[in-house]
Amino acid sequence: MRYWFRMELRHLRYFRTVGREEHFGRAAKILNIAQPALTRQIRHLEEELGVQLFERLPRGVRLSSAGRAFLSETESILAQVERAIENTRSHASGHYGSLRVGFSEIASAHHDIPSKLLDFRLSEPNVTLDLLPMGSRNQIEALKDARIDAAIVYDTHTTDADLEVLDYSDIAVSDISLALYQGHRLTKSKKIWMKDLDGERFLWPIRSAMPRYYDVLTQAFSVHGVTPEIVQETATNSILLSLVAAGMGLGFVEYSENRYQSGNIILRKVEDLGISFNIRMLWRKSDDSSALDLFLNAMAPD
């Protein structure tokens, strides 16, 4: 009666080792199994295939032409299997996959963030990091809709309703600077105080886009008894800076004066403003991605 034999990966590994060594004794030592058991497994494999894989010699064995062909295929099969195992483990550990991250002027304004993004790319080459440019509120909505996996925004853009479904980590602190156009009288001042801003024309944030920023900034002016003359409201820093550069007024931006350079704009610290904001990484509470965990750890503050 024919012996029932079911070929398994271990049989291919046995054959590969014997085929490489062309010696059952050496192969058995490498595989850490008894030589008779190895000889028996190879014989069953030959019976299953219906071909002779080895020519038996007085001392050792030699691959037959069929054996050489089967060894080539076996090497390829086992390499694919080992690759699949490695990739699967990498996926599970987070070292493989893809992440879509909302990206805006915030990230380029803070020097730590671009460098950490680069470090992550270099340390995790098998994780594809797609940086998608979009405004802060658009990032938050895209994150809630699962169109992106993480967002980098100012904490001024998040609401209590957002945080019902999103989790966050504050990854950096952003200073608030006064944007002045070249030639403005305050550019010549060694220090600027809130009282110096009385009577100045201002570009102001739109409250619907940045409610906390709007409220904190308005409160700071109120505390110092200064009433801004608001000439226009803007939704983004880039628009505000363009209008400042055109001489339409002054504005506050979430940039440090030493992190922004422009020919027609000067950023200055207001000594008694007392405002700074956190740059916040957001992600969905329901997301259990291992790759995301690696990314969040990489972006954590030092």
From TrEMBL:
It comes from the Bacteria. Keywords: DNA-binding, Transcription, Transcription regulation. Pfam families: HTH_1, LysR_substrate. GO terms for molecular function: DNA binding; DNA-binding transcription factor activity. SUPFAM superfamilies: Periplasmic binding protein-like II, Winged helix' DNA-binding domain. Residues 7-64 form the HTH lysR-type domain. GO terms for cellular component: protein-DNA complex. Transmembrane segments: none annotated. Coiled coil: none annotated. Belongs to the LysR transcriptional regulatory family. PANTHER family: HCA OPERON TRANSCRIPTIONAL ACTIVATOR HCAR (PTHR30346:SF0), TRANSCRIPTIONAL DUAL REGULATOR HCAR-RELATED (PTHR30346). This is LysR family transcriptional regulator. It comes from Hyphococcus luteus.
